[in-house]
Amino acid sequence: MLALAALLRFWALGRPGTLVFDELYYVRDAVTQLANGFPTSWPDDDPSMATPFTDDASFAVHPPLGKWIIALGLLVFGDGSWGWRAGVALTGVVTVGLTMLLGWRISRSTVVALLAGLFLAVDGVHVVLTRVGLLDGILAAFVVLGALFMWRDHERVVDRTRLTASGIAVQWSRPWLFAAAIAFGCAASVKWSGLYPLAAFLLLTAARDLLVRVVAAREAARTLGVTADLALHRHASTARALGRWTRQAFATGVIALPTAAAVYVASWAGWILTTGGWGRADGPWPSALWQYHVGMFEWHSTLSAPHPYQAHPLSWPLGLRPTAMYHEVLDGGLTATISPLPNILITWGGVAALILLTIWGFRALMRPRELVRRSPVLGAGAFAAAFVVTGYLSGWLPWVLTLSRSAVFQFYAVVLTPFSAVALALVIGVICRRRGGRDEVAGRRIAVGIFVAAAVIVSVLFFPVWSAMPVPEWFWRWHLWLPGWV
């Protein structure tokens, strides 16, 4: 799967040889950041970058880490379109590997892991956003890494939390939580929206810790063998569990939040250790950095410039308004296009899978012990369903609820694609593992095989319009299946 992911992301990566879409901002910031430690301005908007940059500080509206990764590609492969896209393409391949590992940790199924990797490897939105020098594909990599570490923390906590009174003490030793905080701190250092999944997974962790402790306390009271005073013992045990949970939630926050904040501040080292960056001379660096962030927040909160490819977040799950990033009419009736048109079998199938996981998660609320018990279907209990859905919603729901900014775009949804791929793989795993007659099981597996093959074929057919391959005009038009895809 990694070889396939690499092929789809690195093949003809230098095409086209000029900046496309928002590469105009991020690649130029990366070039100047590499040269100075902070972004400086360019005299014009020439996508060929033929005119040298100036020494005047530029007001960059996103944190530096994503642009350092773009700069790493430039450092290794030199100036040019291959160089400024290589770092992002590499993070795309890494994201596929992390998604496979997350799918395996959740399900302990090699088939599920391979399917999750395959679905992400050929997902049109993820392919395109890891073939251009934008920040969102990098953001997705750190979000998945943080989610993987959070899952490992869940496994460790559950392993140490046996349903006995001795297993519900406050746990301060949480190395995987610490690692997750570093990963999510890196995500926020690419784009501020990386804070959303950190907050969502911390809330989910707190909810899990509460349920685990309440269930553990009640089980401990029941094993005492008390009859007449059972209700009293349960009440007292539950009260103690709530007290421990409060202390555990505090400990979790103490471990995660300062760590993520420290990583975020460290990502600004180039700006901090130099004197020429935007606003750097406005007093000591902590106050200057704060004022810089006030300006960034004002810019983001008031951005409302109209754009032909604005897409309301409610349309993102179905990919109804993809962001066309490049289109050029060539000689001989040919065109070259870069547009993250979704593979609807994967995108829409992922949405259906997430709905099923949500239903399973709500059913689990009626059986709290399922949150800490292994399941023959999901492999790690119903908490797996809540975990995957939380990962997806953390990248989508905050944008749905954002009312102060209208200029939002479909390509932000690339952070949803790994969780959608895992969800689809888990549901297919359930379909394949359900019991039944030999003919019934064989029929389900044949249907799954046809679906997977069809998804791959669709991606093969769409790859030319994901990668600026010169194609006839009619071929490009044939791919415009929905009105919003124009």
TrEMBL record:
InterPro entries under this entry? ArnT-like_N (IPR003342), PMT-like (IPR027005), PMT_4TMC (IPR032421)
| Oxidoreductase listed as a keyword | no
Q: Which GO terms describe its molecular function?
A: dolichyl-phosphate-mannose-protein mannosyltransferase activity
Keywords from UniProt, A to Z, are: Cell membrane, Glycosyltransferase, Membrane, Transferase, Transmembrane, Transmembrane helix
| E.C. designation(s) | 2.4.1.-
Regions that span the bilayer: 82-104, 111-128, 134-151, 249-273, 344-365, 377-397, 409-432, 444-466
Any one annotated GO CC term:
endomembrane system
Please tell me where this protein is predominantly located. Answer: membrane
How the protein sits in the membrane?
Answer: Multi-pass membrane protein
> Pfam families recorded for this chain?
PMT, PMT_4TMC
User: Subcellular location, in the record's words?
Assistant: Cell membrane; Endomembrane system
Q: Which domain of life is it from?
A: Bacteria
**What residue stretches are annotated with the ArnT-like N-terminal domain?**
3-208
Q: Where is the Protein O-mannosyl-transferase C-terminal four TM domain?
A: 288-485
Write out the pathway annotation from the protein's UniProt entry.
Answer: Protein modification; protein glycosylation
Q: Which family does it belong to?
A: Belongs to the glycosyltransferase 39 family.
**Functional note:** Protein O-mannosyltransferase that catalyzes the transfer of a single mannose residue from a polyprenol phospho-mannosyl lipidic donor to the hydroxyl group of selected serine and threonine residues in acceptor proteins.
What is the designated name of this protein? Polyprenol-phosphate-mannose--protein mannosyltransferase
What is the native source organism of this protein?
Answer: Leucobacter komagatae
